[in-house]
Amino acid sequence: MKQKFQVTGMTCSACSAAVERSVRKVEGVRSVNVSLLTNSMTVEYGGAPVESGKIIDAVEKAGYGASVPGETAQTKRENPMKKQLAEMKTRLILSFVFWVPLMYLSMHHMMKEWIGLPVPPLIENLFHGTENGVVYAFAQFLLLLPILYVNRSYYRVGFRTLARRSPNMDSLIAVGSSAAVLYGVYAIFRIGYGLGHGDAATADRYLMDLYFESAGTILTLITLGKYLETRSKGKTSDAIAKLVDLAPKTATVERGGREVEISAEEVAAGDIVVVRPGQSIPVDGIVTEGASSVDQSAITGESIPVEKQAGDKVVAATINKSGFFKFRAEKIGGDTTLAQIIRLVEEAGSSKAPIAKLADRVSGVFVPVVIGIAVLAAVVWLLLGQPFEFALSVGIAVLVISCPCALGLATPVAIMVGTGKGAGNGILIKSAEALETAHTVKTVVLDKTGTITEGRPRVTDVAVAGGVGREKLLEIAASLEKPSEHPLAEAVTERAKEMGITLKPAEEFAAVSGRGITAVIDGKRYAAGNLAFMEENGIETASLRAAAETFAEEGKTPLYFADEEKLLGVIAAADVVKPTSREAIEQFKAMGIDVVMLTGDNRKTAEAIRRQLGIDRAVAEVLPQDKEREVRRIQESGRKTAMIGDGINDAPALTRADVGIAIGAGTDVAIESADIVLMKSDLLDAVTAIQLSRATIRNIKENLFWAFFYNVIGIPLAAGVFYGALGWKLNPMFAAAAMSLSSVFVVTNALRLRFFHPKRAAAPKVSPPAEPARTVTLQHEKGQTAMKKVIVINGMMCDNCRKHVEKALNAIGGVSAKVDLEKKSAEVTLTADVSDAALKQAVRDAGYEPVSVSAAGE
């Protein structure tokens, strides 16, 4: 069991490491994962859950605060950075209000000499000169006090963690600035003593080394850096915030026979929810009445609205575009698809990638080591004969320039932005480990049905015998097949429906198992089935045998249709390849990833698909356990493997793979066995997921390099290593500025991932051609030929557009058309002499603009 806590007071990776160490000691705790980015902690228990009070006590012992977050039924979440950002802004403004006059007072004489800045007489008379030394020093001290007060949290947390032997970044700031302040106070006494005893030289010396302005600058610049860092970190959860904002606050439900508007949180399972055009859908459910097109882009990334009618699923946060419908609420509150997406993204963002382990180990010892280096550097310079002020300056610079924040933020910020970007594109990444592993994948194993193909058969070709019209064949075939429950029968009836063909009633329907069906239509008996069934009924099939064999070689299933005397035609059906599958496979290969297809289909169908898409290897006739065995075999050869399937029958293989990717899970979010879930049934999203992984890991490596490089160069510079040879010595004020900028740099670099766009490289040409069917000319009876053409069309936007264009083209005699919305084109099969002009005119009559007509494959 896991439990989530909010943790307060953490400022760097040393803080999160201290919290983890403390909570891990609690009996019954199996693992602890603390996220500095979200100020949260996830505790996993070994058995029965531990009382939350014990966990909170352990956090408090480490010097921090903890609480159990409250959750409402609906997915309401506030960005934890908002309150923190407001506090940081107030601190920053007040710090600058007092820091500016402090800097002017301490540097006014230098400004006058360097840039000729005039100094008012009052300032000149009151603060200038040795005789005004005490007034000058004490005025700086008074201006520093408000800066110390508004930034007191650095001291409260820093000294508390130091006392508990788990120092953090605040400890470095507290010790460094406190040393500067205490030395300044000591300097005031020495100035007063020198002036009182006539020792002007002593007073002058200490007037030049007050360090009040250094303490004020350290605190102000670090607060500025923290403010910029907090503001940037707040942007990492923008993807989640946008999804949360999409969820409507109210819903209209039917209760007591009338419509009532209630809070979306009050919707109960089983309620009938009413949705009008332009409204957002409040919860998940099933349409019971009406029809509409729904914009699901926020959830699945689909750009084209999806048609919904009775029986279809709808999900929360999607938008009803045109029609009116009612649906029955099924999943509410935290069970909705939206809530699950947000939960997944949050969990992924707060999880740790293996690449972060090095930074965590370094952060655990970083602060104590830095304190040791600061003390050692100060002592060494004192032993070398340098004055105390010089040694103190070196020690403070080492403490201030060291930046465990950059190390701690290098990985989690990039992970949060990466997973958020994925969610915005309909790609749900369950953990940081999955995001990291995906960039190492060298072999992708694809399930065929539902992954490469659409998962349901569709009519692909129609070959008619002499004297039979195309529409007449489809009318008889669909009327004959309608009573059948066979999947191929559904493909035929669906094709007739698309063409607007009215079906006739079939009587005396009979099915012959493994052969075909017969029925009487308009008093005449018809038969449909395979070749053996035709031969059993004495039907001559020679005229279309060649066409049927060509269909079979392409992995399609030929269905023969005949009346009592002769063959009427052959209709081929197949589980067709998705429009984007070929491009996705080419992209995988362009990325250097091998592609393997697994399918339970027969070898002939598998080989046809393999040749059509240029897949490296296909394994046919496999069971779910065989898929798992094949994935394991590839892994044993030393290649990182991703398995892409539908997440149900592919569960064993998805679990076995280094990265399991469930495609097209949609509202089911069937992710128990998968590491990454693609909300759309689009294989190109799997390509995007791997490209996103590569971009994220590259960004993390850049961040880690900067964090280590900065500290490796900065600490020796501050310690005065280069002073003897080059005369380089770092002023503590510049050290504070560098420290602040390092954290801001890491966060800003990670935010570049927000501009990630999938790359579509020019993929190598695959031979043979993608769709053999397009290059085959079928010889029908009397020398009639079937020819394929492609019409590029502008103006099509939704599924209704597709239907209008298909209906207009299919109304032409001898034309069979299929529209592809993604490609904005229509593929037409011609069994009669139809001119390009006639095709274009049909498209125009439907209300769309034909751009070009060309032979398929050109």
Strand order of the largest sheet: 14-26-25-24-15-22-23
Report the radius of gyration as a whole number of Å.
Answer: 36 Å
Count the beta strands.
31
Strand content: 15-25%
Oligomer: single chain
Which spans have pLDDT < 50 for at least 5 consecutive residues?
A: 71-77, 763-785
Helix share bin? 40-55%
Shape estimate: elongated
Largest sheet: 7 strands, mixed
- Backbone structural class: alpha+beta
Distance between the termini: 59 Å
Tally of individual helices:
32
The overall pLDDT, averaged over residues, is 81
Q: How would the blueprint of this fold be written?
A:
Blueprint: E1 2-8, H1 13-24, E2 29-35, E3 40-45, H2 52-61, E4 65-67, H3 80-115, H4 121-127, H5 133-150, H6 153-163, H7 169-196, H8 200-207, H9 212-235, H10 238-246, E5 250-255, E6 258-263, E7 272-275, E8 284-290, E9 292-295, H11 297-300, E10 306-308, E11 313-314, E12 319-320, E13 325-331, H12 337-350, H13 357-383, H14 388-401, H15 404-410, H16 412-424, E14 427-429, H17 432-438, E15 443-447, H18 448-452, E16 453-464, H19 470-481, H20 487-498, E17 507-512, E18 516-521, E19 524-529, H21 531-536, H22 542-553, E20 557-562, E21 567-577, H23 581-590, E22 594-598, H24 603-613, E23 617-619, H25 624-636, E24 641-645, H26 651-656, E25 659-663, E26 676-678, H27 684-719, H28 723-726, H29 732-751, H30 772-775, E27 778-779, E28 785-794, H31 799-810, E29 815-820, E30 825-830, H32 836-845, E31 849-855
Parallel strand pairs: 15-22, 15-24, 22-23, 24-25, 25-26
Antiparallel strand pairs: 1-3, 1-4, 2-3, 5-6, 5-7, 7-13, 8-11, 8-13, 9-10, 9-12, 14-26, 16-21, 17-18, 18-19, 19-20, 20-21, 27-28, 28-30, 28-31, 29-30
Helix pairs in contact: 1-2, 1-13, 3-5, 3-9, 5-7, 5-9, 6-7, 7-8, 7-9, 7-14, 9-29, 12-16, 13-14, 13-15, 14-27, 14-29, 15-27, 15-29, 16-27, 17-27, 19-20, 23-27, 27-29
